[in-house]
Design brief:
Blueprint: E1 10-11, E2 18-19, H1 22-27, H2 31-45, H3 50-61, E3 65-69, E4 72-76, E5 83-86, H4 94-97, H5 103-111
Helix pairs in contact: 3-5
This protein binds zinc ion (ZN) (2 copies).
Length: 112
C-alpha cells in the first residue's frame, strides 16, 4: 500500500528548531517565532532601531525582564545594578526620563 503522505520537516529560520506542522514547514518558521517576528516588525515600525529590538530580545532571553502585575514589568539595567519599573508606555530608566526611546519598553512589547 502506498503511503498517503510523507512527513516533511524543515528548520525554523529563526531558532533552528525542527518544524513538523505543515503550516510551519511551508512558511519555514515556527508559530512562536512568527509571532515574535511580527512583534519585532511592529516595534521597528514604532520607531525603534534594529539594535534596540536586538537589546530587547536579549533582555528577554537573559530573563532580565519580569512581569510584576498587569502590564507592569521590572527590567534589570544593562549593568545589572538597577531595576526599573516599565510598561509599554512608561519606564523608570534615565533614558526615558530624558525623553529618549528606551529599549525596555520595546522588551515589554515583545514579552507581553
Ligand atoms: Zn523558531
Ligand atoms: Zn527604559
Amino acid at each position: 500500500m502506498a503511503k498517503q503522505h510523507t512527513t516533511k520537516t524543515a528548520t525554523c529560520r529563526r531558532c533552528y528548531a525542527t518544524l513538523r506542522s505543515t503550516q510551519s514547514v511551508t512558511r519555514g518558521i515556527g508559530a512562536h517565532c512568527e509571532r515574535m517576528e511580527r512583534r519585532e516588525a511592529a516595534i521597528r515600525e514604532a520607531g525603534y532601531k534594529p539594535h534596540q529590538v536586538e537589546s530587547a530580545r536579549e533582555l528577554i532571553e537573559d530573563g532580565a525582564i519580569v512581569p510584576l502585575h498587569g502590564d507592569l514589568f521590572v527590567v534589570v539595567s544593562s549593568d545589572g545594578s538597577e531595576f526599573y519599573e516599565t510598561t509599554a508606555h512608561t519606564c523608570g530608566c534615565p533614558a526615558f526620563e530624558a525623553g529618549r526611546r528606551c529599549y525596555h519598553r520595546a522588551a515589554v512589547l515583545l514579552a507581553a
